[in-house]
Amino acid sequence: MSDAALRHAFDLASRGDASAAEIAFYADRLAASGPSLAAMCGIGRLLVPLVTAGHNVHGVDSSATAIGICEARLAARSLTAPLFRQPAAELNLPFRYGAAFVAGGALQRIVDPTRAFAALSRLRAHLLAPALLVVELVLPPEVQHAPGAPLVEVRTATDADGAQIVWRSETRVDVEGRRVERSSRYERREGRAIVAREDERSAFTWYTETEIADLLRSAGFADVEVMSPLWSDVEGEQRIVAIARM
Questions:
Q1: In the chain, where do the E strands start and end?
Q2: What is the mean pLDDT of the chain?
Q3: Are 131 and 37 in contact (CB under 8 A)?
Q4: In this structure, what are the phi and psi dihedrals at residue 116, rounded to the nearest 5 degrees?
Q5: pLDDT single digits (tens) 157-204
Q6: Which residue, 242, 23, 29, is CA-closest to 120?
Q7: How far apart are alpha carbons 196 and 228 in whole angstroms?
Q8: Residues 6 or more apart from 83 whose CB is under 8 A from it?
Q9: Cβ proximity of 133 and 100 under 8 Å
Q10: Could you tell me which residue, 147 or 100, shows the higher pLDDT?
Q11: Predicted TM-score (pTM) of this structure
Q12: Of 47, 73, 163, 165, which has the highest C-beta tally within 10 A?
């Protein structure tokens, strides 16, 4: 399987849509008229429920598989939305937006600071004043209390066909380098048989409140507010949301 297909299937089976509090927070910050952009939208945890609620939201992600899942989820609800496959750092869409958001810590998957800056700059270029950009950041427990040895986790989710997807990961934290590296294995099982397997290496970084505010200002946003949201997916994790206005 390619393009992290099992990871996206695991995410869909284990997480589904965003929480009601998360959906309401973003819905309140969408453009009053015209479209808003869900950048690095993945399988549509936020995009799908927002479109379902009647909001005009477009989506973009670098993963063809994620875009395909998002499109299928919308189609299952007899809905459509413009979806694009592009990396955030190279964003070049045929629309301009009154608001945009990067949810769920997705920006942190861009570990190269030059490309993270480019992604924010390209997003700004797609916004029409007085638009705003919402960037959500996640500080997981292993970053706050870095383990001395690789952290091993195993989780299981059941997909819509009744098959089990087992996720096993080993996570290493480099506090000085501001880098988390994760080796993951996904196995799709039917009974005792493993019918598909996928290995993935991923990395992400993190920012303090001051750092993300400075990064947004350097990308051309004049007014930045940082707050703590009212939701969390994992016990012990910390989340912050930066709201940047043009």
A1: 36-39, 57-61, 83-85, 97-102, 127-139, 151-158, 164-174, 179-190, 193-204, 223-227, 238-245
A2: 93
A3: no
A4: -65, -45
A5: 998 888 999 999 999 999 889 999 999 999 999 888 999 999 999 999
A6: 242
A7: 39
A8: 41, 58, 59, 60, 61, 67, 70, 71
A9: yes
A10: 100
A11: 0.93
A12: 47
Strand partners, 202: 182
CB contact burial 183-216 (16+ within 10 A = b; e otherwise):
ebebbbeeeeeeeeebeeeeebbbbeeeebbebb
Structural contact between residues 102 and 242, judged by C-beta atoms closer than 8 angstroms? no
Closest CA to 190 of 168, 156, 161: 161
Polymer length in residues for the chain: 246
Among the listed residues 78, 74, 68, the one whose alpha carbon sits nearest the alpha carbon of residue 46:
74
